[in-house]
Each structure stands twice: as structure tokens, then as C-alpha cells.
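Tutorial, part two.
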Amino acid sequence: MKILNSYKWLASVTVVVLLAVMLSGCKREEFTETTTGDVNITEYLQQDPNQFSTLSKVLQITGSDNSLGGYGTYTLFAPTNEAFAKYLTESGKTSVDQLGVEELKDLVRFHLIRDTITTDKFTDGKLRTNTMYGQSILTGAQNINGVTTLTINRQATLVKGNIRAGNGIVHVIDRVLKPSRLTLAQAIEQNPNYSIFTQALKETGFYDSLNVLPVNAPDTNKRFQTVLAQSNAVFAAAGYSSYSALKSRFSKTGDPKSVIDSLHLFMAYHILPGLKYLPDIFNASSHVTLAPLDVITTKLVNQQILVNDDTFDGKYEPGALINRVASDNTTANGVLHDMAAHYAIKVRFPIPVYWEVTDQPEFKRLTGIYRVTNKSSPNYVTGDLQDIKWQTGSVSYRVAPEARQFYVYNNDYLFIAALRTAATANSFVEFKTPLLVKGRYKVWVCFIRRGGGKGVSVLFNGEPLSRVLNLTESLPAQVLVGNRWTYPAGTSPESLEALGKKIVFGGPSVPYYNNPAQTIEYYRDSYGLLAGTIDVQKTDRHNLRLQAVADGSGDVQIDMIHFIPENMDQLYPKFNPDGSVIQKPQ
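Running the prediction step on this input gives:
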């Protein structure tokens, strides 16, 4: 998204499939698909005792052989006999009979998924379905001597995949997978590189909440959490070589356990509710933290995942890099990531956001169409656009022809055929806004008059704003004064603003389209309507919906939406079709 003179926000993050990107140019190990006929998983394993006699015995001890011998849809990661031999040696045992039944049951659950997942679904991160143990399986790739192999949970290598049984799929692996039994707090504390972060967790009280197993967590929202931890080296690079230095900088009350203490908020800002693996991190542009009303923003740039990499109020703020190699660590109650750089809560104040809704990632990839005169995209259906959704009709991107390049900013606009009727509650289009700093804003919808949108209600996070917009009306016709078309007698920008209207596009320097020797003050069919005032409670991206409440016979064309702090000038700047900005005359 493009925010002019105030904030520029890259609204999209790219979903990276590791097997399509990381493995490019490498010699790929082929995993052929095998069909076992009608036998189910239990029988398939029993038919190959040279590889799976130990696993078969484990299934028999735990009673899992009956389940895997019957009807169902499973994915089993099957360790070989050699893999179990290594596991037993590491455990100081000589036979699986020496392991407890509950331990073996947990082991089976961790290798079993109640879903059928083939290797083409092994992406950079967790599989789509958790194991029956409750934890996720991570898949990835490694390249050794030009040969790329698939890794499972960073513990095992795929030996043979996609063996189809009658009730699921078997993937053969060379090591026994071990579920994590450490809590987030324990995993952080046992790493000496996190000693400052550990002490800060203890001093602020977050260590205790990160040390609770999911089954014992009274608050269901805190059963699983995600921590973005900073190492001692990262703290030192930021100027904090000890915990005392960190406390001296951030703790303003002297009591880090206080919820209003800055150190408490700093640590809360590094904890996210829920399970957030790396794909979850970069597939969303912002994430709620335990710091009330503050979020982190995230984006993927050239395979690097950055936190709070933003342009705010026209100034670029470099982000903090997540260390991908050392991240995605599953614990018993969450996920642990490693930060390669320091970050903290940013103190920000409300600023105007002049949002050009056409600046969407899908449109910008249309190199032969984006801002090319008289071009338009195909009609998109709902689900095609990352940050715009609707239920009926279509949406497309359009650029004005040369003869009509006088009424929209950058000559392009969003063509919406989804607000033509109020006969169904599904006649809406909903946007994900740019990042809005908490505060109160007036919202202006800037459009080109057409036949649709006779009655449009605007909703912010599901709450309707005060005014219903009529997008089928024009402004008063201009009058010619000398060589300048200007406001008719009795009207002025201020009087229009009192009516909830404002001139947005063009100005006296714009040639009049019927006679270039004359200039035009405004184009009467292109302006902004005030939808109402919003109270943004949390600095984040939000949902803004345009909902049809009256029938209209045509399309709706939207160019910009303005979010302007209520105590600021609402009339300037204005925007020219050539992309230039008109500031308020001094």
C-alpha cells in the first residue's frame, strides 16, 4: 500500500515454498511414490521386518497396531530399525521393552498425523496438521555435496516418502523424532546466550507464565505463546552489555513487574500469543503482542524476515532481522525464535494517512498494465487479492484513457462491481487498511461518481460510521472566471467541508479537459465524502468495509481513502493526476 507524504506500507508478504526456491539449481533426490495395494499401515510395516520390526513391536506394545490396521486417514513418519537402535543407545537402553508404555505412546503420537500429507506439501515450516501428540512437525531441506534431502523436525532425514497404504501415507525416516519437553522458559534459560533475556523474563514475571505447560494454563489464550528472543550479543550491539544496563535504560518505575513499567512492556513486546512459526510470521503483516495496544509489523524481503521495517511519516525505519536458521524451535508450550537485531516499542503519534487503494501487490505485479494509460486488469474474483475481499460481483484495476486523465490520482482507480444492490448483506467490499497509529481520525472516501453506490455504509472493524454515503451525486457545477473554472457563488471549500465533502483531485494548475487554455479548480464528479470519525484503539492494520444499503445500477470507482487526525487540516494536501501533490498555500 502507498501512503503519500506520511507512511508507506508494504502490505504483502510473499509465501515462499522452500522446495521451489531453496532447492532451485540443486540436484534433487527423487522420492518415488509407492502403492502398497490394499494393505493398511500396520500390515505394510509387518511385511518388511528388516526395516520396521522394532516399530511394529512399539505399535503392538502401545495398542496402536489396531488403529493403524483399520480404517482411517493417517500420515506416519516411520523410523527404521537402525533409527531405533540409535535412539535406544542415546537412552541407555537395549530394547524398547525397557521403555515405559507411556513414553512409547507419546513416541507413536509424535510420529502420527491424522491427515494424509505427501512430500509436495512439505514447505519451509510446519506441516498443516499437528501430530496426535499435539506438537507440530517442521520440514525443510538441506544440501550436501549438491544433493538436496528433506529434513523432518531438524532431527531426521527422509529416506523414502509417499508410500501409499490403504489407510494413509508412510514416510520412512532415519532417526526417531523426539517431542520437545522443555517449556519456553526452560528452553531460553538453558541457552547461556540468552542469560540477559532470561533474567529480564524473571524480573518482569514473564518467566513463570512461559513455564506453564498447556494442560495447566488457566487462560486458554496463553496455553501456547511465541517468543522473539534477543541474545546477549544482540543486546551488547544495542548498547546493553548486562541486565543492569537494560534495566537502567527501560525500567522507569523501578518495578519491572509493574504492567506500566517500560521494561515490562519491552519484554511483553517480544511475546506473541499463539503458535507462530516463521511462515505464520511473514504471512501476516502485523502481530498482536502481550504489550497492550502495540503490535509488531513483519515482512519478507529477499528471503529475510524483518520486524518493524516501516516507512513512517515519510521516513524509512530499518527493521530488525529474524535469524531464520536459529528460529522455529518447538517447545512444549510454544515456539522460540532468535532475533539477529534489537527492537523495542516505537513511540508514535497519529499522522494523516493518504492511502491510494490501487497500490495493491497483485496490481503492481502487472508490469504491462500498472499505471499504463488505458489499461485494465482482468476481473478478479473474491480470494484473488490479499488485502481486499468481497462476496458478490467483481473487482478490477483500471487506468484512465488519455482523454480522461484529469480526475484521479496517478490516473488509476479500483473498479468495483460488488456494491450494486442492497438485496443481500453480502454486497460489500472490505479492505485491510495501512498501519494506523492509535488515535482519532476522520475518514474520507475519495471516488469517481458512477451509477453504483447510491447508499454505502462504511464500517471500521465491524462498527458502522455515522454517515451513509451517496456515491451517485456530483458537486455543484463550476463557473468560468477569466480562464479559470472555479467554485460557483455561495460555495467554498470550507462550506463543502461543512457538508462532509472536499475536493481531492486537481487544482488551478490542471488544464481544463475541454479547453487546455483554461484551468480547472475541480472535477465535479470526483471528490471525497466524509464517512465519519473512528477511534483507533490499537496501532495496527484494521478492516474497513463498504457495505451497500441502497440499490445502485452501476459500478463504484474508488481511488483513495484518507485517514486524517480529527484536529488536523482536512482539505490539504490535494493530489494531481500526474502524481504530484498540492500542499496548502502559505
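The CA atoms of residues 142 and 422 lie 55 Å apart. In part three we will examine how such features are distributed along the chain.
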